[in-house]
Specification:
- The chain is α/β, with parallel strands linked by helices and 314 residues long.
- The protein has two domains: 3-117 and 289-302, Nucleotidyltransferase, domain 5; 129-284, ATPase, nucleotide binding domain (Nucleotidyltransferase, domain 5, 2-Layer Sandwich), CATH 3.30.420.40.
- Helix content is 38%, strand content 22%.
- The protein has helices at 39-61, 96-104, 113-124, 184-187, 189-200, 207-215, 219-243, 262-272, 290-302; strands at residues 3-9, 13-20, 25-32, 67-72, 75-77, 82-86, 91-94, 108-112, 132-137, 145-148, 151-153, 247-251, 280-283.
- The protein has a five-stranded mixed sheet with strand order 3-2-1-4-8, with helices on both faces.
């Protein structure tokens, strides 16, 4: 059975799958990234994991994978197949596509984790059927993926979609990027968690605790939450003014708050738009599988040149 290998490399774990031509998930696996052992060990671990997946495919599918796709964090040069930089993995200028290609003997596609997750959400998830979408995961930071007609725009230098560094509070909190008042300093899950921990006096409290307190009507939690929602709406309206997406997909840990987040966010965006068209604002559908599913789509795109891409089943 023809299939592809998909790898989604994160700061702490690697998710993997074998995906068949019909979109079926034939095999799933995951393991620790092992970043505590250093960048060289992380790279070797990725290569070894991919080789094990290839061997599994030969044994259980009767043939080696036809292609592989890998999604990684940080700065990615997708055209050259290079993992340029990832602070949480400690690597720099890793020719990951070539390394994997040599190990597997098969074509390899390399993608940025958020853009790859956005590709999956756009084609087979919450943005399915939308010709223009913006995928914004709210996690430790905030990034974005700009979807256009079934593909995701990387930009001239690989930085497209970095919505987390839109300045929403001029002269506000300093950001590691060098600016002040960036969106992710106010509306990421880590920012909300830090603000709630300070407000409630519990250093272990996080964004999920804040959401539960909001649902229970705690006034301090409501204040912290509303400040985050307002900042997020400011950043999103800037993005939708520039990009005019038909669908705005919100994912990441903060989106798990569900109805605590989406109704006030939709209202906040609606109050800010003037001439713009308000997009559908919807939760992501694929959860933490998005990166792996997107990597499979990247791999299958290598095998598809003249026809539209088949879908990956979830």
């Amino acid at each position: 059975m023809r299939h592809v290998i998909a790898l989604d490399v994160g700061g702490t774990g690697i998710k993997a799958a074998l995906v068949g031509d019909d979109g079926a998930l034939l095999h799933r696996a995951r393991r620790a990234t092992g970043r505590e052992r250093g960048p060289e060990a992380v790279i070797e671990g990725i290569l070894d994991f991919a080789a094990e997946l290839r061997a599994y495919g030969v044994e259980h599918c009767g043939e080696p994978a036809a292609a592989a796709g890998v999604a990684v964090p940080g700065i990615v040069d997708e055209e050259r197949g290079t993992a340029v930089y990832a602070a949480n993995l400690g690597w720099k200028d890793v020719p990951l596509r070539a390394l994997l290609g040599d190990r597997l003997g098969t074509p390899v596609a390399l993608g940025h984790d958020v853009r790859t997750g956005g590709l999956a959400e756009g084609r087979i998830g919450a943005g399915r059927g939308a010709d223009r979408f913006l995928f914004v995961p709210l996690g430790t930071g905030i990034a974005g993926a700009i979807g256009i007609d079934g593909r995701v725009e990387a930009g001239a230098h690989g930085f497209a979609g970095e919505i987390g560094h839109i300045v929403v509070r001029p002269s506000g909190a300093p950001c590691p990027c060098g600016q002040r008042g960036c969106l992710e300093r106010y509306a990421s899950a880590s920012a909300v968690g830090a603000a709630w921990a300070a407000a409630c006096g519990d250093p272990e409290a996080g964004a999920a605790d804040c959401a539960r307190a909001v649902a229970a009507g705690d006034p301090d939690a409501v204040r912290v939450w509303q400040e985050a929602v307002d900042a997020l709406a400011d950043g999103l309206v800037t993005a939708l003014t520039l990009l005019d997406p038909r669908t705005l997909i919100i994912g990441g840990g903060l989106a798990e708050a569900g109805e605590v987040l989406f109704p006030p966010l939709r209202d906040a965006v609606r109050r800010r738009v003037t001439f713009q068209r308000t997009p559908d604002i919807v939760p992501a559908a694929l959860g933490d599988s998005a990166g792996c599913l997107g990597a499979a789509l990247l791999a299958r795109d290598l095998l598809t040149t003249t026809s539209s891409n088949p879908e990956v089943s979830t």
